[in-house]
Amino acid sequence: MEMTRDEALDLVRDNISEDNLVKHCLAVEGVMRRLARYFDEDEEKWGLSGLLHDIDYEETADDEEKHSLIGAEKLEEMGLAEDIVHAVRAHNDAHDIPRRTLMAKALYASDPLTGLIVAAALVHPEKDLNEVDTEFVLNRYEETSFARGADRDVIASCSEMDLELEEFVGLGLEGMQEISEELGL
């Protein structure tokens, strides 16, 4: 089954009530779309994986062990492509599922990167995503007490895609800046 972006966004909004979590899904979608263009991959598929990756987050909030498994199962039942389902399933470290595709590696690394970029934008003097540059985000990355929830080891897994950290952060920032109005930043 092909799912449109609008259908996917409706699905996200039907399953996620918290506005900040919806924005997180949009941010990951933005980064994934930018990475897809960089790697000359299917931007729609990569975008869907980012948009839908936390579809079960509120449902599994009390059981981290089930997060991403239930979401992947839902997406599989809806007939989404296997590579999207795999990327969603593998983005949660709790399951120790090998990330065997470029899409899965990208989703895994992009998830925490969005949190770091949002936090950097919020402490930037302009509080405007479009005023933030790669160097500003990298400086925040080095501050281990800053945005502690943004797992630096996971972000650094961008090396599995043969991307240097600076390049990955730059691409992620570009992807989020492209949708800054939708993110409210």
TrEMBL record:
Gene3D superfamilies: Hypothetical protein af1432. It comes from the Bacteria. Residues 17-125 form the HD/PDEase domain. CDD domains: HDc. SUPFAM superfamilies: HD-domain/PDEase-like (SSF109604). SMART domains: HDc. This is HDIG domain-containing protein. It comes from Halarsenatibacter silvermanii.
